[in-house]
Amino acid sequence: MENVVLGEEVVIVGGGVAGLATALALKRVGVKSLVLERANELRVTGGSLTLFSNAWIALEALGVAHKLTSIYKPYKRGEVTNVANGVTQEILFSTDEGEEWLARGPRPVHRRALHETLLEELPTNTIRYSSRVRSIEKTESFGVIIHLEDGTTIHTKVLIGCDGVHSLVAKWLGVKDPVYSGRYAVRGQGVFPEGHGLKHEPQQFLAQGCRIGILPNNNTDVFWFMTYPSSIPSKEEEMVKGDPKIIQSKMLEKVLDSAQIVKDVIEHAHMPSLSWGPLQFRYPWDLLFGKVSNGTITVAGDAMHPMTPDLGQGGCSALEDAVVLGRHIGNSYIRNGGMLSQEDLEVEIGMYVKERRFRAAGLITGSYISGWVQQGGGGVGIISSSRVVGWLTKILRDRVFYKEFGRLSGLVQYDCGKLPTGLTSSEN
């Protein structure tokens, strides 16, 4: 294989939300970066994600929020229906329709639209596709050395792993692997060319140990998900070895006939949008006490804090990471007159980790508990599941959790701050 040696200021592994947002944050403060993406094109998995106010604050700091808020409308309310008894509860997201809420209210966004919005702000040579990392070295003489599977060697001052749940960078740092939550999730996008006719409101359905959600993006597209408990992942893996239609068929079997609206959305699934897999998370104490940086090497997004999706904070927290990391690296860059000082960068990256560690651990914990409660106890993961516990959990869910959801969702709101201004270059 050809041995090509490249030199870069900052290298980001992974071209998902965290990687693209981090590259944009660095561009905004004048620092050039290279994103290594293993796929041969823009990587998009899953149909949509819901962005809460903390994500919109981060996107405002990145200078792109307006491009998405002009397309997607915020949710005002939603409903949760217990399929077994037909009882429906209302969820209020906000009663304030002021300008700030309209700009930062929770709203669904096509994942591809978010990726493309971030990507179009970056120089065309920012992403190197078909780039798989084989190994990482840290040396005193040459800084960080990255070896790619195609024989390319890259020297860099800073390495940021945004390479997902099974991060190679996190593994190199010695962070403990994520663990199985005891639940699986299927996600997809229902497409109705003639219009779906649904209100612009998220709806959830609880039935037979499953939690199903449908979230309209616009007049034609509806994001949907299903989470359900499963104690043996290997058996579930057999389900998806064939055509995506098998996934669709299996999901339809889990939905009661009384929930026809759910069946309709699943039947309209766009096959390429279907994703399936076990829900994993990192124990919060592994994040609190583990080593998530080494000099100028660190991680962000799912590589740092994989969590269950029950508070809708995976993508939101990744955007927070990007701004906070960009702020710290930008502070060092500006302070050193447009240079990246190795010693100063180590201090700033250590400060980034300190700032994000407790925030992320709290989100992991809150997401897990939220999922456990909404699933009615479930008896999965790290929390036991006696019948009494399940009964009490369902009471907590039905009588307290959803009624106070608007207040509870406020717990995840966070202001990640702004990016520093100073030495910037439109050429970066």
CATH superfamily of the largest domain: FAD/NAD(P)-binding domain
CATH topology term of the largest domain: FAD/NAD(P)-binding domain
> Architecture of the largest domain in CATH?
3-Layer(bba) Sandwich
Radius of gyration, whole Å: 22 Å
What is the number of independent domains? 2
What are the main properties of this structure?
428 residues; alpha/beta; FAD/NAD(P)-binding domain; D-Amino Acid Oxidase, Chain A, domain 2; 2 domains; eight-stranded mixed beta sheet; seven-stranded mixed beta sheet; globular
Write the layout of secondary structure elements.
Layout: E1 5-13, H1 17-28, E2 33-36, E3 48-51, H2 53-62, H3 65-69, E4 77-82, E5 88-92, H4 99-104, E6 107-110, H5 111-119, E7 127-128, E8 133-139, E9 143-148, E10 153-161, H6 168-173, E11 179-191, E12 203-207, E13 210-216, E14 221-229, H7 233-237, H8 244-254, H9 260-267, E15 275-281, H10 284-289, E16 293-294, E17 297-299, H11 314-335, H12 342-374, H13 387-401, H14 405-409
Parallel strand pairs: 1-2, 1-10, 2-7, 4-12, 10-17
Antiparallel strand pairs: 3-6, 4-5, 8-9, 9-10, 11-14, 11-15, 12-13, 13-14, 16-17
Structure, explained:
With 428 residues, this protein is α/β, with parallel strands linked by helices. The chain has 2 domains: 5-75 and 96-179 and 282-412, 3-Layer(bba) Sandwich (FAD/NAD(P)-binding domain), CATH 3.50.50; 180-281, 2-Layer Sandwich (D-Amino Acid Oxidase, Chain A, domain 2), CATH 3.30.9. The protein has helices at 17-28, 53-62, 65-69, 99-104, 111-119, 168-173, 233-237, 244-254, 260-267, 284-289, 314-335, 342-374, 387-401, 405-409, and strands at 5-13, 33-36, 48-51, 77-82, 88-92, 107-110, 127-128, 133-139, 143-148, 153-161, 179-191, 203-207, 210-216, 221-229, 275-281, 293-294, 297-299. The strands form 3 sheets. Strands 1, 2, 7, 8, 9, 10, 16 and 17 form an 8-stranded mixed β-sheet that branches. A 7-stranded mixed β-sheet has the order 5-4-12-13-14-11-15, with helices on both faces. β9 and β10 (153-161) form a beta hairpin. α1 packs parallel to α5 (111-119) and α1 (17-28) runs parallel beside α11 (314-335). The longest helix has 33 residues, at 342-374. The two termini are 31 Å apart. Mean pLDDT is 85; it is low at 377-393. Residues 9-331 form the FAD-binding domain.
